[in-house]
Design goal:
This protein is α+β, with helices and mostly antiparallel strands. The protein is 39% helix and 21% strand. The longest helix is centred in the N-terminal third of the chain and has 20 residues. The protein starts with 15 loop residues before the first helix and ends with a helix.
């Protein structure tokens, strides 16, 4: 067996130098969500495969081509979650949250999995931050989640992004439109790619997801879904748009936007960066999904943001990174004494790093230089005998002797700088 292991294609290691950006994104989303009254929910990474077949749609590209699915030891068909909404809906129904909460607001974040072609900002294991609101039918609930996303992205530092919005209408509007465009597309079916020929027959709205240039060109003369909206759906969309205008949210309307999941009704949206035209988030309303998955008739709306894509657009902040005090403990007596100091440091939340291996002072100092610490605490038998500890400034080279009774106070002082 070859021992030279490498990560699988489409997977990514997130190393400590980069994780700061991820934590900044997650922190910003969490802070904004909690201001709006959202609570965190965590669902399993593994689910029954048919949860996603039913939730996302059997004819969607995700289910047909991209799911990581397998049979477990008991022969059950299992899938790694390709998105978060279906799992949250399942948890909402299974735990009967609707009994105690008229309006339930959740946020979640974590890894998702799709067997997709890896490219810039797209991995087979990717990370999403999502929100879901259950029980709200009014279009202001749609506006609220767009507002949360808008505030979060600005807080993170994303610039020049735009919300692309559309309405798919209710079941009746959607079905009428699907019947019409199916006839329209069948008349020129030979001009579409092989995948789209199948989509035209099974689920014509999926044609709008195709990235093929020729398919896109042939969609230009397709009628707009906005012309097929009933009065209720039109009023819903107009009210949603007015909410966006009220809060000065940058948006444009694109009647070809359908999103890649079959459960959407009425409002759908994506967020793209104006410079790179990359979708970094998307979402919409799914008023029928809870009922279709065995729950009561409860409307819902949500979004998911791609953390992998968002971190591409933010820079590491130009601030001095907080470094630990590096403990150099020379000999067994120093190690035992060092543990007492370490215990107090933990209590006082003083950042420290300790290497317990037997090394010379010069070797320890070389390591400290290499990892870029500012201060070293040096303790050996001579220092123990004198009741002192040495603090060495690695940047300037000077060092000071500190009485062991005063060391915690001094460590707190130097680590604040």
């Amino acid at each position: 067996m070859n021992g030279n292991f490498t990560k699988l294609r489409g997977m990514k290691d997130i190393l400590p130098d980069e994780i700061e950006l991820w934590q900044r994104v997650e922190k910003a989303f969490i802070e904004v969500c909690e201001i709006f009254g959202f609570k965190e929910i965590r669902t399993p990474i593994l689910e029954n495969k048919y949860l996603f077949v039913r939730g996302i749609g059997a004819t969607s590209d995700i289910v047909m081509k991209e799911m990581y699915e397998f049979k477990d030891k008991k022969g059950r068909e299992i899938a790694l979650r390709p998105e978060g909404t279906a799992s949250v809906v399942r948890a909402y129904i299974e735990n009967k949250v609707y009994i105690t909460k008229k309006i339930a607001r959740f946020y979640y974040y974590g890894p998702m999995f799709r067997y997709d072609r890896p490219q810039k900002g797209r991995y087979r294991q990717f990370y999403q931050f999502g929100v879901e609101t259950f029980g709200g039918k009014h279009p202001f609930f749609d506006g609220e989640i767009v507002q949360i996303l808008d505030i979060s992205l600005k807080k993170i530092g994303i610039e020049n992004f735009v919300f692309i919005v559309n309405s798919l209408g209710c079941r009746i509007c959607k079905n009428k439109y699907v019947e019409q465009i199916k006839k329209n597309l069948q008349e020129k079916i030979d001009k579409f790619c092989e995948d789209c020929k199948i989509r035209i027959e099974k689920n014509p709205l999926r044609v709008f997801d195709c990235k093929n240039t020729f398919c896109k060109e042939n969609l230009k003369e397709v009628p707009s879904i906005l012309n097929y909206l009933c009065d209720d759906c039109k009023n819903h969309f107009d009210t949603f748009v007015n909410f966006l205008l009220k809060f000065n949210i940058n948006f444009s309307i694109n009647s070809n936007l359908v999103r890649g999941l079959d459960y959407y009704t009425r409002t759908v949206f994506e967020v793209s960066t104006e410079k790179d035209d990359i979708a970094i988030a998307g979402g919409g309303r799914y008023d029928n999904l809870v009922e279709e998955m065995g729950g009561p008739d409860i409307p819902a709306v949500g979004f998911a943001a791609g953390i992998d894509r968002i971190v591409q657009f933010i820079k590491k902040e130009d601030k001095e990174e907080k470094k630990p005090v590096y403990f150099i403990l020379l000999g067994n007596n120093a190690k035992l004494k060092g543990l007492e100091i370490l215990k107090e440091c933990i209590k006082e939340k003083i950042m420290v790093e300790v290497d317990y291996e037997e090394r010379s002072l010069s070797d320890n100092l070389r390591i400290a230089n290499k990892i870029g610490v500012k201060w070293c605490l040096i303790l050996g038998d001579n220092e123990i005998e004198k009741g002192i500890m040495i603090l060495k400034n690695m940047k300037d080279g000077y060092q000071i002797e500190v009485n062991e009774k005063e060391i915690i106070k001094k460590l707190k002082e130097i680590t604040k700088c």
